[in-house]
Hints:
Elements: E1 3-7, H1 16-25, E2 30-36, H2 48-54, E3 62-67, H3 75-80, E4 85-89, H4 96-105, E5 109-114, E6 132-136, H5 151-165, E7 170-174, H6 181-187, E8 192-195, H7 197-200, H8 205-213
Parallel strand pairs: 1-2, 1-8, 2-3, 3-4, 4-5, 5-6, 6-7, 7-8
The structure holds D-xylitol-5-phosphate and zinc ion.
Amino acid sequence: MALVSCSMLSCNFAYMGKELETVQSAGVDMIHLDVMDGAFVPNITFGAPVIKCLLPLKKVPFESHLMIENPEKYIGDFRKAGSDIITVHAETSNHLDRLIFQIKETGAKAGLAINPATPLSAVAETLRYVDILLLMTVNPGFGGQKYIEYVTDKISEASELRKEKGYSYLIEADGGVDNIHGPKAAAAGCDILVSGSYIFRSANIRDAIDSLKTV
Ligand code: DX5
Ligand code: ZN
């Protein structure tokens, strides 16, 4: 049984609060907030002030997925805005060990994300401290993209490594996850399925969420 985290990137931003309430009452386990700076990724979304406005409506954990350069400058802001999990990209820091502990010291859980082309070996040393390992199953920057099949092997690799080393990180797949690819990712060892366009474009949001939960 996978947890389902709804990416708000595909919601109608004119009614973001309403859309949040809709998916929370439809049974999502977490909310995934895609923060983009137009530098690390070729798109710009929103920052901590928007997340702060959603905080009074929060019923499930908020994960802020920071697709930004220099994330170390903003960890405190995202924690204060209400992030329960702060996920940073390995590709945006030369000092990953320090960054992971900077997140943990705020009381938030530490998520570590790697792009499709980044090998698991690039983060092997820090995995012992990480609460969530986010494996990008699309190239970051946009919702509605196609799931990249070869990342499923990386999910299996991460699951094997966790068993072998006795680590406790949860494995999260993010991008292009729907009722076809969600089961593949879950079967490979994924614990959390992040889904945006599949949920928001569905005729029935609750059915779409349930179709991912039962994988
Ligand atoms: C992409 C984001 C993902 C994406 C998921 O850079 O990190 O969270 O929005 O949306 P879908 O499910 O539409 O691929
Ligand atoms: Zn994301």
